[in-house]
Amino acid sequence: MKPFSEACERNREPIVAVLTRIFADRKRVLEIGSGTGQHAAYFAARLPHLVWQPSDVAEHLPGIRQWVAEAGAANLRMPLELDVERAWPDTAADAVFSANTCHIMSWPQVERMFAGVSRILPANGIFCLYGPFKYSGRHTSESNLRFDASLRERDPQSGVRDAEAIAAVAEREYLAKEEDIAMPANNRLLIFRKGHLHA
């Protein structure tokens, strides 16, 4: 059975509406944590000027391959294995996209992801990070509060991250936050650019 995420179906249109603008002058995107592969298949079809490179840990690759094969898009690549804990694959990109990854990672893994993104991106490279975030330690909704509690119950090292802490980690890696865009269902899309220490 091909993996399926209801959340991907719901959020793909609002996300791609922003990516159409943000990635207008980009050529190659690395997606970190492609999950089911649904976003990759949908975004590649909607952004035909981009080469879209999915990636994830080994256990998710078979499902992603199914979505990629079914999409049949010339600009969509087969997924790479990428685990932030290990050496990253040798790939070039002028943009990176990641959805719903920070809250399922440990904080050291979040830091490693930003370090890896900074290594891959050239100057002026863009990193788009989608998901729920806290602000000044406060959740933006009751549903996010409950979601955070359920994450931490399953894995105490995971949880909804503080947007200010994320921005601080990004800045250490020469990734300045340029935009913070409100999205449906109490999510955000954070846009970082490499090479400018101050937005």
List keywords for this structure.
199 residues, alpha/beta, Rossmann fold, 6 helices
User: Spans with pLDDT under 50 lasting ≥5 residues?
Assistant: none
**Percent of residues in helical segments?**
25-40%
Class computed from helices, strands and strand pairing? alpha/beta
CATH class: Alpha Beta
Query: What's the SSE pattern?
Result: HEHEEHEEHEEHEHEE
| CATH fold category name | Rossmann fold
Radius of gyration: 16 Å
- End-to-end distance: 44 Å
Mean pLDDT: 96
Q: What is the general shape?
A: globular
Beta-strand residue percentage: 15-25%
Main beta sheet, described?
6 strands, mixed
Strand order of the largest sheet: 2-1-5-6-10-9
Tally of separate helices = 6
Q: What's the CATH superfamily, by name? A: Vaccinia Virus protein VP39
CATH architecture: 3-Layer(aba) Sandwich
Structural write-up:
With about 200 residues, the protein is of the alpha/beta class. The protein has one domain (about 5-195): Rossmann fold (3-Layer(aba) Sandwich), CATH 3.40.50. Helices cover about 35% and strands about 20% of the residues. The chain has helices at about 5-20, 40-45, 60-70, 105-120, 140-155, 165-170, and strands spanning about 30, 50-55, 55, 80, 95-100, 125-130, 135, 160, 175-185, 185-195. A 6-stranded mixed β-sheet has the order 2-1-5-6-10-9, with helices on both faces. It has a two-stranded parallel ribbon with strand order 3-4. A two-stranded parallel sheet has the order 7-8. β1 (about 30), α2 and β2 (about 50-55) form a beta-alpha-beta unit. α1 (about 5-20) runs parallel beside α2 (about 40-45) and α2 runs parallel beside α3. The termini are far apart. About 40% of the residues are buried.
